[in-house]
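yo, TetR family transcriptional regulator is done. seq:
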Amino acid sequence: MEVIAEVGFAQASLARIAKHTGISKGVISYHFAGKDELMEEVVDRTYGGIAEHVMARMEGLRTATELLRTHLLAVAEHMRGHRTQLKALGEIFYNFRTADGAPRYGIKANEDVYLALEQIYHLGQANGEFRAFDPRVMAITQSSAIDNMFSYWVVYPDHDLDAHARELADLFERACTK
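structure:
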């Protein structure tokens, strides 16, 4: 992740990554079939870490409003300590392509995130906390807002990430409640 964040996706060769970590390229090749598989592992581990942190914060919460706010705040809380991972993810998302040239990550890759957010919105609508709206539209909008919050913070590291997350939580809460 450090190499990708530092030199960019295109320049992050297996040889350069091996040199940075002080191991041979063969060690990497033993564990990964190639750069593509390594990049997928980086994304999977990063998203797994985020999910683990967020789920721990959401455990025991009952209302959709609490879940919504906690999701937004916990994602920012976790990533505040992982700026290098964010830079690496950005490089991977913008540059990693499939064999036919299509982006490897994108809207379709976010489906699990959208489904999880939709569950919060459905809960809020079912229990009367939230007004009527399309949960898919709101899930996509929330996910996009989080992505752009992080993109901004990567470029402007002095930006107050926690304040930004609180503003988003307030915004989405006001947008959803009756």
